[in-house]
Amino acid sequence: MKSILHVVSLVLPLVAAAQDPNLVFNPGFEKLLPNAPAKPCSYIQNGESFDKSVANWTTYRTMTPDLIDWKSDAYGECFFPKPHSGERAVGIITYHPRYDTGRYTDFHELIRGQLRMPLVYGKKYRIEMYVSLSNATGLHHLQTIYGEKRDIRPTAAGNLGVLFVYNKNTYPDVDSKPQFLVTEPIVTAEGEWRLISGTFTADREHSYFFIGNFLKDEDTPTTLENPRQIDSFNIATTNHADKIKRVAYYLIDDIRIVPADAPVPKPDISTALKTKKNYTFQNVNFRTGEWDLLPPALPELDGLATFLKENPKVKVEIGGHTDDVGNDDDNQLLSQNRAESVANYLIFKGILPERLTYKGYGESQPIAPNTSAAGRLQNRRVECKVL
Q1: Which of 69, 164, 168, 330 is least surrounded by CB atoms within 10 angstroms?
Q2: Alpha-carbon span 208 to 32, nearest angstrom
Q3: Residues 246, 346: one domain?
Q4: Domain hosting residue 292, numbered range
């Protein structure tokens, strides 16, 4: 049986610029430069094109991070996943070993952002960003380079970090140590977004920062099976085309760097469901093995009821999720009962039953690895999505 459902907001609301302590210029990549050469739903072909497209963001060397300018055509066939919010995000390769490419170094893509004001030495800051693993995009990207018949293996990868630098002409090197680092592989379902966050203390008055993988791929954890055997195979294979190609491709969006003592903005159900079309409850928790709603859940559920009354044509699904601890059948039933409890409360508040669907997913849709307590906490959740 499962312990209390833990919830993580998938949507960070917009805050008025004058009140927002966020130090990052253009944190959601929405602002473009005049005459930006990047086109909707297409890969960036060179770093110069990226630098001329996104305001306050650049890359360097031969890197080609992608501006995810998500706009579907008449048939809705844009291959990029939707951004976390707005119309744009950035996609980067964080794992593509040198053994796969014949290069002297691993191929990683970095993006460089600018701060509104320098960090204060010795001051503690909080960093947050939304990250989405897209194996489908990583596979499609490498197929456009190497061909559709090649052995390409997308994977989740760790060592996603943020490196702060003092001035614009400072670049990472092999000895760079990011001030913020997520060592374990970041796993999400296709199209899902995960909030990663942490704190750091400024070691200098930095004005710029890089996001990406600054470590070697041989030191980067992945979810691949037998990566060392793949290394050996690729080293022994002389024909470049026959080498196994591995790649981790992540979308990045809505980056925040704020003083650690800054107030944390509260998620808004209405904004989330209107923009992202889904919402993960923060306070819909349950006692172990039970599905009766607890008092802290009611204000949040009342907010959902209000949204549904203000938008009478909207239909939603309530989904319950668990981690992988315990019996599969028990997890399925528990998540189903908890989702039904939420739906019943909404009916009690006057929402027509035909506007509500509830479903238990058990442990089938994790948004984080179940290998740690923190990951299991993220997986124990109740979500609402617009149908």
Answers
A1: 168
A2: 19
A3: no
A4: 269-386
90 token code pair: 């950035």
User: What's the CA gap between 62 and 338, in Å, rounded?
Assistant: 50
Question: 254 and 126 in one domain?
Answer: yes
Q: Give the pTM.
A: 0.68
358 plus 252 within the same structural domain: no
In a domain, 7, yes or no: no
State how far the alpha carbon of 360 is from the alpha carbons of 81, 206, 226, 262, 364, in Å: 25, 47, 34, 37, 10
Domain end point (choices 259, 279, 301): 259
Residues 202 and 273 both lie in one domain:
no
What contacts 75, CB < 8 A, 6 or more positions away? none
Q: From first to last of the 387 residues of the chain, give the pLDDT tens digit.
A: 333 233 322 223 333 334 578 999 999 999 999 999 888 888 888 878 999 999 999 998 778 999 998 776 555 677 888 888 788 999 999 999 999 988 889 999 999 999 999 999 999 999 999 999 999 999 999 999 888 889 999 999 999 999 999 988 888 877 789 999 999 999 988 888 888 989 999 999 999 999 999 999 999 999 999 889 999 999 999 888 899 999 999 999 999 999 998 876 666 788 788 877 888 888 787 777 788 888 888 888 988 998 899 888 899 999 998 888 888 888 899 889 989 999 999 999 999 999 999 999 988 888 777 877 766 777 778 899 998
Structural domain total, the chain? 2
Q: Is 255 helix (H, G, I), strand (E, B) or coil?
A: strand
Does residue 23 belong to any structural domain of this protein? no
DSSP classification of residue 325: -
Q: CB count, 10 Å around CB of 302?
A: 14
The amino acid present at 100, given as its one-letter code, is D
User: What string of DSSP letters covers 104-148?
Assistant: SS-----EEEEBSSPPPTT-EEEEEEEEEE-HHHHHHHHHHHH-T
Q: What are phi and psi of 146, to 5 degrees?
A: -105, -15
In this structure, the answer to whether residues 159 and 62 fall within a common structural domain is: yes
Regarding whether 190 and 328 lie in a shared domain, the answer is no
